[in-house]
């Protein structure tokens, strides 16, 4: 992990999460390593002095100091504003000089025509998708305001007949009317009045609404797919506990009760109870619901030892890790190893989602070396269709949330036999 960003003292270094490395801190360090000074810009735009203040602010301990919509969108854009070629930040430019923005994608910046020309051979490969990413980055605000997704209805088909997004959209009654309604909302007008960028065409905005709907629903539908793949589709009166390992803010502090409501529509005969995080998780408690979600922002094997083994949390029917990142560095692989071995040895059905094919192949290699019994692998039919760029390296292959799946249960037969023998007493092995 990189050292503290320039301008921070040693006591202000990015704090580790729990007793091991965490993707939140790793991502912050990666930004600083790719564009020196950018992490400090992000903190400054949030009126924060160091990463510890950001950590507290996420828990409501600080105000971000944003007073207007224009200020909010400007600060969001400022964290992407640096020369894509030489990485220079705006404040390092000579007085009176500003960064130039690509007119095609409205997403990538350059400090000079020379940098733009020299970078074009690389940028042109990603320019079209970066335009979509720039639109979606702003449209994400409408997810937080509740304008996206539009009003949804119970599924008109069994979950086995919905193979992907095409079938899902086909089920939505009055789809075009609902999409058009989103374009006419007051917040859509506020967004593009204050975004500091030209408003895209209605056709581009409609396509973005579709992508953002898939982004908002990718997690619950991926969970529903996993329940079906593992043969755990909810049944009335049978509580199912799902644990989120390596949970991020999306599954903990930022989680909302409605985030997984699509599971209700996918399995309409059941209820879904969401227990967000870092609190004592739910045991089974009908009639409140049949599917229980528990996320823990920390090392899952610590959660298991302190809560599951002591009976304070129910043993999970399934564990899911959204973008666990154990492929990203030796430190993260080492931090995840006890959890992966625990899930393997206790035969817990486990699902991991990955951002890209490269991440998928690296993670697959790690799981193969651990000799887990893989049950499903490959592209996820319910991946987010939103394009996401690397914040510190925009001219790079864009990725999608939950793009690939890796599912496993237990160990390969040879390893499983060894584990069984180890768990038995010498007398029973000898038959005495």
TrEMBL record:
Pfam family, one: MSS51_C
Keyword Zinc: yes
InterPro entries assigned to the protein according to its UniProt record, in alphabetical order: Mito_gene_expr_regulator, Mss51-like_C, Znf_MYND
Domain MYND-type residue range list: 83-127
UniProt entry keywords in alphabetical sequence: Metal-binding, Zinc, Zinc-finger
Sample GO molecular function, one term: zinc ion binding
Protein name: MSS51 mitochondrial translational activator
Source organism: Eptatretus burgeri (Inshore hagfish)
């Amino acid at each position: 992990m990189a050292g503290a960003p320039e301008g921070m003292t040693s006591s202000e270094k990015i704090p580790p999460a729990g007793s091991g490395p965490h993707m939140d801190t790793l991502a912050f360090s990666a930004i600083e390593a790719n564009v020196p000074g950018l992490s400090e810009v992000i903190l400054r735009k949030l009126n924060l002095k160091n990463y510890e203040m950001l950590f507290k602010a996420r828990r409501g301990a600080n105000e971000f100091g944003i007073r207007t919509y224009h200020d909010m969108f400007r600060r969001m854009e400022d964290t992407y504003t640096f020369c894509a070629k030489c990485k220079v930040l705006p404040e390092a430019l000579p007085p009176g000089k500003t960064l130039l923005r690509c007119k095609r994608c409205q997403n990538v910046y350059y400090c000079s025509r020379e940098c733009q020309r020299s970078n074009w051979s690389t940028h042109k490969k990603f320019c079209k998708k970066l335009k979509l990413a720039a639109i979606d980055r702003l449209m994400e605000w409408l997810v937080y305001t509740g304008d996206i997704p539009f009003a949804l209805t119970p599924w008109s088909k069994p979950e086995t007949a919905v193979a992907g997004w095409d079938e899902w959209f086909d089920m939505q009654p009055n789809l075009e009317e609902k999409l058009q309604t989103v374009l006419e909302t007051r917040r859509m007008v506020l967004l593009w009045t204050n975004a500091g960028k030209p408003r895209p065409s209605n056709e581009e905005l409609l396509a973005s609404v579709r992508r953002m709907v898939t982004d908002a629903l990718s997690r619950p539908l991926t969970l529903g797919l996993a329940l079906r793949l593992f043969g755990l589709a909810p049944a009335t009166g049978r509580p199912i506990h799902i644990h989120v390992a390596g949970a991020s803010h999306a599954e903990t502090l930022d989680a909302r009760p409605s985030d997984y409501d699509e599971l209700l529509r996918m399995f309409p005969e059941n209820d879904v109870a969401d227990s967000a995080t870092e609190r004592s998780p739910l045991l089974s408690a009908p009639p409140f619901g049949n599917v229980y979600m528990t996320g823990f922002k920390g090392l899952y094997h610590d959660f298991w030892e302190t809560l599951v083994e002591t009976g304070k949390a129910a043993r999970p029917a399934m564990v899911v890790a959204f973008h666990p990142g154990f492929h990203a560095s030796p430190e993260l692989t080492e931090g995840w190893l006890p959890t992966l071995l625990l899930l393997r040895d206790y035969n817990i059905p486990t699902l991991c989602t990955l951002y890209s094919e490269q991440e998928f192949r690296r993670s697959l290699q790690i799981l193969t070396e651990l000799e887990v019994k893989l049950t499903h692998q490959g592209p996820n039919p319910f991946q987010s269709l939103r394009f996401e760029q690397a914040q510190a390296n925009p001219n790079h292959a864009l990725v999608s949330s939950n793009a690939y799946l890796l599912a496993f249960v237990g160990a390969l037969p040879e390893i499983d036999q060894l584990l069984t023998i180890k768990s038995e007493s010498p007398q029973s092995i000898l038959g005495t």
